[in-house]
Amino acid sequence: MSDCLFCRIVARQIPAEVVYEDDLALAFKDVDPQAPTHVLVVPKRHIPALSETTDDDAALLGHLQRVACRISKDNALSGGFRVVANNGRGAGQSVDHLHYHVLGGRAMKWPPG
Ligand code: 5GP
Ligand code: ZN
Question: Atom 24 (ligand 1): residue with closest C-alpha?
């Protein structure tokens, strides 16, 4: 989708600090980091939100979580890290292209705000 921010990052129409890429996924640093490590993992294909996925997307969703795991290792987050998908405005989703936040490098509180 040409008007989607993350599709434009995937297409390299908007610059981002890419830390990982494969055929299905792109990972890049969040422009407004909330932790020392804050990386966004997105599918290259436009999917608006987790709630828009189907059973056919199960392998892709698993793959995105494996990429998140890889990001944690690349950043030596052995002390702990958090993977978050905000779904819908009420949960804080501001970009309507599925993404997992990978956060680490500081102590995490629970419950999140
Ligand atoms: P959400 O609020 O949808 O869960 O997360 C969207 C994230 O995208 C936010 O953490 C925000 O800082 C990040 N973001 C918004 N615009 C850009 C951008 O242009 N580049 C990058 N790298 N991150 C962005
Ligand atoms: Zn998109």
Answer: 31
| Average pLDDT of the chain to the nearest whole number | 97
**Domain spans of the chain, in order of start:** 5-104
Cβ(92) – ligand 1 distance below 6 Å: yes
| Model confidence band, residue 1 (pLDDT cutoffs 50, 70, 90) | low
Q: How far apart are CA 32 and CA 28, in angstroms?
A: 12
Rounded CA-CA distance 51/59 in Å is 15
Does the Cβ of 37 fall within 6 Å of ligand 1?
Answer: no
Span 44-56, mean pLDDT? 98
CATH topology of domain 5-104: HIT family, subunit A (3.30.428)
**Ligand 1 close to Cβ of residue 3 (< 6 A):** no
